[in-house]
């Protein structure tokens, strides 16, 4: 077995069975001993059944909290440029970030994997969201929480590089397989998210992939207030609960309220008192659960 990132030939199976919290199916996770990247095996022939209608569609209260953090993140991206330009987001979800950028004066285009998913963003914010390949030249290209869903990152990145304007920037956000949270959660790590996450990146592995496409890393950040503390909470709950990501399922509306779901909300509030400082310390140490990398053409 050969690592698809660096070509290493001595991978190690780190998890015999990591469970999908939607279907209950089990998957192996392998890791390269050279670059530290991981991958999910086997890759399902049809990934559609692993993406429920409510995937990433949280209840209004949770969505409002995420909106506050996303607004902070989007303002940071916009400040990298002297003036608004054209932005493209691959895998834009419900289109919230593109909607925010459009409100700042950016010309926004997004894409999604299915017509049904694209229609969600169109109806929510009236955005230009397409299915499949997108053509154009963009000053800002976003690949936020998407690259880990791609089995072969090289061709995807090559296509995005061609779309980048001179002086343009590519922003990538992925879970950090070398994070403290990943080590703590192991097969029950919230951000492992098999089989939707086909690749599991370390910074070293991501740098190899980017260099292969002529991209240079300009900045790396591990600060993720919208994802990191919750990742600690859900990973901790997975240690003591036989049902994977029970709290996440409830907050997405997959499951209805019952005693155990409500109880987990209470436990999550208590765990948050530890999760927040743990996240802050991991950010300072460069071991946060989510990496954001800003790249430019070399």
Report on the architecture of this protein.
The radius of gyration is 19 Å and the shape is globular. Helix content is 37%, strand content 23%. Helix 4 links the parallel strand 7 and strand 8. The chain has nine helices and eleven strands. The chain has a seven-stranded mixed beta sheet with strand order 6-5-4-7-8-11-10, sandwiched between helices. It starts with 11 loop residues before the first strand and ends with a strand. With 298 residues, it is an alpha/beta fold.
Number of helices: 9
Summing up helix and strand content along with how strands pair, one would put the structural category as alpha/beta
β-sheet strand percentage: 15-25%
Unreliably modeled segments = none
The main sheet comes to: 7 strands, mixed
Helix share bin? 25-40%
Query: Which geometry do the CA atoms define?
Result: globular
Strand order of the largest sheet: 6-5-4-7-8-11-10
**Secondary-structure element string:** EEEHEHEHEEHEHEHEHHHE
Terminal Cα separation, in Å? Answer: 31 Å
- Total strand segments: 11
Radius of gyration (Å): 19 Å
Oligomer: single chain
Average pLDDT, to the nearest integer? 94
């Amino acid at each position: 077995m050969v690592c698809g990132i660096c070509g290493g030939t001595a991978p190690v199976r780190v998890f015999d069975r990591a469970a999908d919290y939607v279907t209950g199916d089990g998957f192996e996770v392998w890791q390269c001993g050279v670059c530290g990247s991981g991958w999910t095996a086997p890759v399902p022939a049809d990934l559609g059944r692993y993406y429920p209608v409510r995937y990433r569609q949280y209840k209004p209260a949770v969505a409002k909290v995420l909106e506050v953090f996303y607004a902070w993140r989007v303002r940071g991206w916009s400040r990298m440029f002297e003036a608004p330009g054209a932005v493209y987001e691959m895998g834009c979800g419900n289109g919230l970030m593109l909607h925010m950028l459009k409100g700042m004066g950016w010309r926004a285009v997004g894409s999604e994997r299915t017509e049904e998913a694209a229609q969600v963003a169109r109806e929510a914010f009236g955005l230009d969201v397409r299915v499949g390949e997108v053509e154009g030249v963009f000053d800002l290209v976003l690949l936020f929480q998407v690259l880990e869903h791609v089995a072969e990152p090289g061709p995807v990145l090559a296509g995005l590089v061609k779309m980048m304007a001179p002086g343009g920037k590519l922003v990538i956000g992925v879970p950090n397989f070398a994070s403290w949270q990943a080590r703590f959660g192991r097969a029950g790590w919230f951000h492992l998210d098999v089989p939707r996450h086909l690749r599991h990146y370390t910074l070293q592995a991501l740098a190899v992939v980017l260099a292969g496409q002529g991209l240079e890393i300009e900045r790396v950040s591990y600060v993720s207030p919208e994802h990191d503390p919750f990742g600690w909470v859900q990973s901790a709950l997975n240690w003591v609960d036989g049902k994977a990501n029970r709290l996440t399922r409830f907050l997405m509306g997959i499951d209805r309220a019952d005693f155990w779901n409500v109880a987990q909300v209470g436990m999550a509030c208590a765990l948050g008192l530890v999760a927040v400082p743990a996240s802050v310390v991991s950010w300072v140490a460069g071991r946060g659960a989510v990496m954001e990398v800003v790249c430019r053409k070399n």
